[in-house]
Amino acid sequence: MDLIIYRGCTIPVRLPGYEAATIAVLEKLGVNVTVMNDANCCGAQYIESLNRMAYAVMCGRLLAIAEREERDIVALCGACSGSLKTNQHFLDNDIQARDEVNSILADEGLKYTGKVRVRHLLQVLMEDIGIEAIERAIVAPYKGTKLASHYGCHVTRPYEIVQVDDPENPTILDRIVEAAGGTAVDYPGKTRCCGGPMLAMDEEVAGVIGLDKIEKIGEAGADGIVTACVFCDIQLTQVQFGDKAGNPRKIPVLPIPQFLGLALGIEDSALGFELNKIDPETVVSGCSGGLK
Amino acid sequence: MTETETKDPRIGVFVCHCGHNIAGVVDVEKVADSAKVLPNVVYSCDEMFMCADAGQQLIRDKIAEHNLDRVVVASCSPRMHEPTFRRVVEEADLNRYLFDQVNLREHVSWCHTRQPFEATEKAIDLVRMSVARAAELEELPIKKVEVTPRTLVVGGGIAGIRAALDVADRGFEVVLVEKAPKLGGNIIKFSHVFPGDKSGAEVLKPLIQRIHDHERIKVHVNSTVDDFDGYIGNFDVIVKKHDAKNGSTYKIGAVIITTGFEPFKPQGYYSYGETPDIMTLAEFQSRSWKEQLVRPSDGVPVRKVVFIGCVGSREPGVKGHEHCSRYCCSALAQTAGDMRPNLDEAVILYQDIRTYGKGHEVFHRLARERHVIYSMFPTDEKPVVDVQGTIITIKWTDVLAEEDLVFQPDIVVLATAMIPPDDIEDIAKTFSLTRSGDGFFNPEHIKLAPLTTHTAGIMIAGVAQAAKIASESVIDASGAAAKAVGLMAKGEVEIESTVSRVLSDLCSTCHTCLTACPYGAIVIDEEHDPPVAFVHEAKCHGCGTCAAACPSSAIIMLHSTDTQILTMVKAYLCPTSGTEGGKA
Amino acid sequence: MSKTEKHKRLTPSSDFAEEVASIHGGEDIAKCIQCGICTASCVVARATEKYRPRKIIQKIILGDRVEVLTSEMSWFCMTCRMCEDRCQEGVSPAEIFHAVRVLAASEGHIPNVFRKSADTVLEDGWMLKDAYSDFIQDERDDLGLDPEVTFNEKFAHRIKEKYFSKKEGPR
Q1: C109 part of contact set with chain A, CB < 8 Å
Q2: Do C20 and C72 lie in a common domain?
Q3: Of A15, A146, A215, B160, which is the most buried if we count CB atoms within 10 A?
Q4: B515 and B477 in one domain?
Q5: Which domain holds residue C37?
Q6: Do residue C30 and residue C102 come from a single domain?
Q7: Cα(A12)–Cα(A16) distance, rounded to whole angstroms?
């Protein structure tokens, strides 16, 4: 299958490892990917809160670009995938809004007609590729390394619109962890937000929220955390560096393609581990492939 | 019939395992064995389930085989199976009062579960006591009284109307008494009866018409029950119009009390009484509904209304006002939701929202959808209402928004408590009924017998029993009617023979027993010379108060005579030689 | 009883709730029965005492337009949608607060951080142009990624001109 990756604002600059790992993993699993350039911010959180039509036009443009490329979009950030799906739903159900969007896009020769699907990376892995195919592709499984999954809010909610996984009891990440030979670890508050969006209004509260997650994951005995959203990844990492964090051992945070990539036999240099702010030693040492 | 006075009694003892219930703790075989050597016991055994067909047949077989004339069953509580075993011995031609039951379950195995040894000791003691008592038991006659096929319904509101029609439609006569000038109670005054758009009068009219047309219903309005005497199936009633000298006399088989309620007039609450623009929900409902709503004080059209719930209800420590009146939350939701489209603002101030009834939650949501503002106030800081001329100002705190609010409505509607009517104490005295904390009548058992009372033959229904909504009153009424009809259809009713009896030779006519009896069952028999106390056995409940009170020991309790009781004490304290037990 | 401002007394009015109900996202405001499950589920409410979704909705129902639109309360929602997932009445407090934010923004009540971030996006086309340094480009290159990252500025300017030039009402 052919997909176009929408990276959003943050990944190219703050988490390029996630971008690289995703491309490597998808290609390894037989998906042909291109990356969207000349894009724009999806408008999540900021533009979203200020003007609904502006938000719709911004996402509309991204959808129209994908249409032009005749590829479904795969989003790597939860907020981006949530924005794209929400606005697709809005435009599919409101003709006036759609017409307004298209009148602006017409300048660039773009048009939104609703032809392409928006997928989050987890949907591509679980539905388009399938867990059996992933299992078959594992060449260097982990030896029971314990991973806690953090799904992120915009990936799974609201279910009626995003339709990725059960919002109260999501399992996709856990199943990928197990398929790769790891042990999925459960912990209280698994479906709670990481606190990332709160950084804007109140850093302290954001820290309380994020550290609560880290604490619960630590108590559950996880060796590492796997994520499906760049924002969550960055938040769960940096909150462990704040002065409120104290001095416990830092738990490495990995976007899921980094974790999976190693088990698929992909070179670690292609996965961007050296850019991870928290040393992923406790996780990668459990992989029979190991770092080279 | 066996002659129990001349021959030695022949007692059979049956100890029940009750499956694991008794046998799991008590060594039932040992208990049965212990009974074998007791005086007058000619047969003793243990059995898995005495109440089952096999157990019952066992009793019948052994009575015949061993010529038993007393039966002791050691099993569950008499409340469970006394009637069962009495019937069994009767079928074997033995008087039912020659049977005694020992409670080895509720009184032994279930409460001494972790002490099986002591429990068995206790069981052996109890059986020994019962065997001693059985030897002293005497036959008592089985009494039946006739039931007059006529029911008295007191109170002509919706419950009374329903009960009267239910009874009369099944072929029995009804006397319906109502103190107001016409039937319909509270509902007939309401301009709006939910659901639907009809007024109370419209809803009740066809039923009231049926009552007046019914050949078996006699209606007395502007009347009360002036005198009430007698016992179940045979009550004597005098119904009188207010201020009349004489009344109508009736013989009555069963009574249904449906005296309902009156809406509380909340003097001292929320400035009620300071202006006609502050009114109760009942007063509000009694006004005309279809025209434009205007303020009573100055006729200005009403655009803003505040409703306040729980007025005079749910007040801990305030006697007669501690109960929830049940109807108000639903009534407020329905009224406010209905009115809102024609108002600028409708605000409901509440402590809780209890729209519990079938379909009522829909009204709550509808009211909110129409932008009725629901605001919760704290129970310890109620809204304050101030009246200046025609301007009403209300101040309160919203608990959920943590905000202080002020509002000037055109009218204020208070959902006030359902309280008993002002003559409820008279009714209670007349019919020997007791009342509970909310002021309404006590049922015989709140869960298992909610419509009967401790006075046999008298039922309560509707709000007379407790605050409730109209549809629930109708349910009560039909239930009480069914009980009345059941009684009258049978035509006769057994009365217990375990009553008190005056030994007239010893009576000194001191009147102590008369005053002591809670059921009014004792009178002075003037025909006797000298006059002595006399017990109306049909009214007697066998409580024993008179016997205990009598200073002359002139009253005996049948089936609980002094001999019968003291012999149990003696058997417990002084086991005869050759028997075990007594240690603990 | 706690008071929000010094002895301010609000006169309740359903006008504000009706206004919110007319904005996209605020339609279900009247369905709220104040049960509190949203607040019990809210991750922010768990972390700080100053935010209570149920309280904000009741303030809307009571009609406290000034406080709801001018305070920071509705901007604390992280749009995590836990409340929406759990609400039994089909209300999404997240959506309602979204509608409130849009309304507040149209009247000029925008927290600085939102204003600044939005300005950045509308100017550069994305959020992190300033952070996009040579080092980042090198890192990308080492990873085998295209070092060039492009976002369309012209489009952003069009959006700014059409929707953020002070002529529009809440959309």
Answers
A1: no
A2: yes
A3: B160
A4: no
A5: 15-106
A6: yes
A7: 5
B373 Cα to chain C: minimum distance (Å): 7
Are residues B134 and B194 both part of a single domain? no
Is residue B575 pLDDT above 90, yes or no? no
Q: E strands of B379-421, at which residues?
A: 384-388, 391-398, 403-407, 411-416, 418-419
Tell whether C78 and C126 lie within a shared domain.
no
Selected residue of C23, C24, C44 to mutate for chain A interface (largest A Cβ count, 10 A): C44
**pTM for this predicted structure:** 0.84
CB B310 within 8 A of CB B415: yes
Is a pLDDT exceeding 50 seen at residue B544? Answer: yes
Interface ipTM:
0.90
pLDDT in the model for residue B1: 46
Tens of pLDDT, residue by residue over C140-150, are: 998 999 888 88
Sheet holding A253-255: strands in order across? A183-185, A146-150, A224-227, A253-255
CA distances A152 to A78, A168, A188, A259, C38, Å, are 7, 12, 14, 17, 18
pLDDT of C1 higher than 80: no
| C9 closest CB neighbour out of B365, B368, B405 | B405
Whose tokens are 């129970």? That residue is B379
Distance CA B576, CA B39 (A): 9
Q: In this structure, which amino acid lies at residue C130?
A: D
Does residue B339 share a domain with residue B432? no
Total domains in the fold of chain B: 4
Q: How many CB pairs under 8 A join B and C?
A: 72
Residues B288 and B243 in one domain: no
Query: Do residues B252 and B269 both lie within one domain?
Result: no
B202 and B221 inside one domain? yes
Residues B168 and B250 in one domain: yes
Based on the fold, state whether residues C88 and C123 are members of the same structural domain. no
Q: Please, are residues A282 and A250 in contact by the beta-carbon 8 Å criterion?
A: no
- Rounded Cα distance, A114 and A72, in Å: 11
The sign of the torsion formed by the CA atoms of C108, C110, C116, C117 equals negative
pLDDT for B584 beyond 50: no
Distances (CA, A) of C100 to A42, A48, C19, C32, C66: 21, 12, 10, 16, 12
**Was domain A140-284 assigned CATH 3.40.50.11810?**
yes
How far is it, in rounded angstroms, from Cα B337 to Cα B194?
A: 12
Q: Which of B351, B369, B371 to mutate to test the interface with C (most CBs of C within 10 A)?
A: B371
| HSE-up of residue B437 (Cα within 13 Å, Cβ side) | 11
Q: Which structural domain, as residue segments, surrounds residue B534?
A: 500-558
Chain C partners within 8 Å of B371 (Cβ): 14, 17-18, 30
Report the alpha-carbon distance of residue B56 to residue A177 in Å, rounded. Answer: 68
Residues B299 and B374 in one domain: yes
Position B290 scores a pLDDT of: 56
Q: So what's the architecture of A2-121 in CATH? A: Up-down Bundle (1.20)
Show residues of chain B in contact with C32, CB under 8 Å: 368
